[in-house]
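> forwarded from #structure-qc
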């Protein structure tokens, strides 16, 4: 029960921009906290996701989306969650939206899958610990040199389509990293 690591890799991530809408989230969030879910739901209902996934500057052909988590500062009790899409660097930001630029970096990518008995609640909560464990096993560690962030990547093929079919989804989770030593 819980979440299992399906695939792990370290990839070169190009300089990119995330455009979307954001909310402040408490670090010690309770499972009953629906701040992030409410953001995604409101973006689906108000057409924001349709606008973002139709931007010509998107970095993917599929309507993939991301949940960028960052703006952490030591001692703070909140971070920024930005729901949106990855676009080319310098893409103009539509009115009413926010952005974060991501510098080119090495990034750890974990494919995480909910297992029987988990309706997806742990897949998000366990993502950071799963990817950090996999990084250590492969000789890498978190690298905050290019900004303190991690990112959920919602692949249309691995997450959205299985979700619509009621099947187990795979959440891609990104974390900047560097070789240990």
């Amino acid at each position: 029960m819980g979440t299992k690591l399906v695939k792990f890799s370290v990839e070169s991530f190009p300089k990119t921009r995330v455009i979307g809408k954001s909310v402040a989230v408490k670090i010690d969030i309770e499972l009953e906290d629906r701040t992030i879910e409410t953001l995604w739901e409101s973006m689906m209902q108000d057409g924001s996701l349709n606008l973002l996934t139709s931007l010509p500057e998107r970095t993917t052909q599929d309507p993939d989306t991301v949940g960028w988590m960052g703006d952490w500062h030591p001692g703070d009790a909140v971070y920024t969650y930005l729901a949106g899409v990855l676009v080319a660097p310098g893409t103009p930001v539509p009115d009413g939206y926010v952005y974060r630029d991501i510098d080119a970096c090495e990034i750890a990518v974990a494919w995480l899958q909910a297992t029987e008995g988990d309706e997806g609640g742990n897949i998000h909560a366990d993502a950071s610990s799963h990817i950090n464990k996999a990084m250590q096993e492969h000789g890498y560690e978190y690298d905050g040199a290019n900004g303190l962030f991690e990112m959920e990547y919602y692949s249309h093929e691995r997450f959205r389509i299985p979700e619509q079919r009621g099947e187990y989804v795979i959440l891609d989770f990104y974390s900047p990293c560097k070789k240990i030593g």
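QC bot note: The two ends are 35 Å apart (CA to CA). The longest helix spans residues 35-45.
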